[in-house]
């Protein structure tokens, strides 16, 4: 903020210098009297001050110091290693000699993870073997059949002050963070639940974690933070997971307890190449006749080789990634758009709207595909409807991205789609 003020003052000084030089050089040069120059300088000064006040007001609104500090804090907080997660989440039911011997390591990890962000009261408690759980450390969590075993980039933090009792402030925060995940089956191979520690330990079988076992997802974690002096550097008193369901502290660390967390799309918008692939596929897939869809169903029931041949005959094979033992799961008969009494379909690929599905990860990209179509019914009447499909895309080495699976979700009257497009057009018109 000081730098901004200095910049504004420098500009104001140069304007004054230029006008003064003009004054001393002779008023006739400018064709202006000294009084007029004085008025110009005063007017310029007032305008500069008003502009400065407006600039600083706008700048202050945009530059949230507390948010900036929270982002820095959570980036440090989520930098935990596997060993730190295992140690910091141990919650023994019996405090035996072994636990007290290990407390030096616990304290070391606590002070490393919270360094520079601890209120003196919290620091004193940890120095004196603080056993209550005012800090909920990052832990292993199951999400959609995958388990987060490591945390990566913190992308954003949003907060609101829900209680103010100066100098203490209570904040509700949402933290957008990437997590490295493995399958639950792989997690069970690597970790064992230790009853004494009331948390997991790494198995000694030295099971190797391959790159193919790992993926990345994005999640939003909700926390309640208690801070001291919010306008200064974050001074933390407590940090707890904010879930709607109450879980006892003894069971809170269970990987199934994910109520404070929700998955969010890994991508903000569809990849350009993915969107193009989806549009090309549906343009070809939808604009077929009734016989072609009957051929699809016959090939599906016959076997993999016939199904593969059918895709080639309908010019669809180049878009998809077929797995011999799973082709029926990848492209079930329900994907056929000619349902009930529909005998023909017509659609335009430019009308396809592609949006990111929340379950998208770094490796597996999922999209919704919505589009209008004109259909001819068996009684030879026409109807306008919309289709929605779920499309799964993966990269296939040198061949690039391919469609790995399609799931038909629904079709409905075209009214809602038209309303959506008209609303979007109205919004765009207002912006322009």
Give a quick precis of the structure.
With 432 residues, the protein is α+β, with helices and mostly antiparallel strands.
Mean pLDDT: 83
Shape: elongated
Largest sheet: 6 strands, antiparallel
The end-to-end distance, rounded to whole angstroms, is 33 Å
Rg, Å, rounded: 31 Å
Q: Which series of helices and strands comes N to C? A: HHHHHHHEEEHEEEEEHHHHEEEEEH
Description:
With 432 residues, the protein is of the alpha+beta class. Helix content is 39%, strand content 28%. It has helices at residues 2-25, 27-30, 34-62, 65-77, 82-88, 97-113, 120-127, 184-190, 272-286, 290-302, 304-313, 327-330, 415-431; strands spanning 141-143, 146-165, 168-183, 191-194, 199-202, 215-228, 236-241, 261-264, 342-346, 353-356, 365-377, 382-395, 401-413. The strands form 3 sheets. Strands 1, 2, 3, 6, 7 and 8 form a 6-stranded antiparallel sheet that branches. Strands 9, 10, 11, 12 and 13 form a 5-stranded antiparallel sheet that branches. A hairpin with a 7-residue loop joins β6 (215-228) and β7. α1 (2-25) runs antiparallel to α3 and α10 runs antiparallel to α11. It is elongated and about 80 Å long. The two termini are 33 Å apart.
Key traits:
6-stranded antiparallel sheet; 5-stranded antiparallel sheet; single chain; alpha+beta; 13 helices; 432 residues; 13 strands; disordered C terminus
């Amino acid at each position: 903020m000081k730098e901004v003020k200095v910049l504004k003052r420098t500009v104001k000084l140069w304007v004054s210098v230029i006008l003064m030089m003009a004054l001393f050089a002779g008023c006739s040069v400018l064709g202006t009297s000294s009084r007029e120059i004085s008025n110009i300088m005063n007017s310029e000064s007032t305008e500069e001050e008003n502009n400065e006040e407006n600039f600083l007001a706008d700048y202050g609104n945009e530059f949230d110091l507390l948010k900036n500090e929270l982002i820095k804090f959570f980036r440090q907080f989520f930098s935990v290693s596997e060993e730190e997660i295992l140690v910091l989440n141990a919650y023994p039911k019996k405090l035996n000699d072994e636990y007290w011997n290990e407390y030096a390591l616990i304290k070391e990890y606590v002070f490393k993870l919270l360094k520079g962000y601890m209120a003196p009261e919290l620091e004193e408690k940890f120095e004196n073997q603080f056993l209550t759980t005012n800090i909920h450390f990052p832990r292993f969590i199951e999400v959609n059949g995958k388990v987060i075993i490591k945390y990566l980039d913190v992308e954003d933090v949003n907060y609101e002050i829900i209680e103010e009792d100066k100098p203490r402030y209570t904040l509700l925060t949402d933290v957008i963070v990437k997590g490295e995940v493995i399958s639950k089956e792989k997690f069970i191979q690597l970790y064992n639940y230790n009853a004494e520690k009331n948390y997991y330990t790494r198995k000694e079988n030295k099971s190797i974690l391959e790159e193919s076992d790992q993926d990345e997802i994005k999640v939003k974690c909700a926390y309640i933070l208690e801070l001291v002096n919010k306008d200064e550097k974050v001074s933390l008193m407590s940090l707890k997971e904010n879930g709607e369901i109450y879980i006892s502290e003894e069971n809170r660390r269970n990987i199934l307890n994910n109520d404070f967390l929700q998955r969010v799309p890994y991508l903000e918008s569809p990849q350009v190449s993915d969107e193009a692939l989806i549009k090309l596929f549906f343009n070809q897939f939808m604009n077929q006749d009734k016989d072609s869809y009957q051929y699809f169903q016959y090939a599906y029931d016959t076997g993999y080789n016939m199904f593969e041949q059918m895709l080639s005959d309908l010019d669809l094979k180049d878009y998809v990634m077929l797995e011999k033992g799973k082709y029926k799961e990848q492209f079930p008969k329900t994907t056929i758009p000619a349902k009930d009494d529909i005998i023909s379909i017509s659609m335009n690929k430019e009308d396809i709207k592609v949006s990111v599905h929340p379950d998208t990860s770094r490796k597996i990209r999922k999209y919704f595909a919505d589009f209008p179509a004109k259909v001819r019914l068996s009684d030879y009447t026409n109807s306008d409807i919309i289709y929605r499909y779920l499309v799964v895309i993966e990269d296939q080495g040198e061949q690039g991205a391919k469609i790995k699976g399609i799931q038909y979700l629904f079709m409905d009257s075209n009214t809602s789609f038209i309303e959506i497009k008209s609303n979007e057009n109205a919004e765009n018109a207002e912006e322009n």
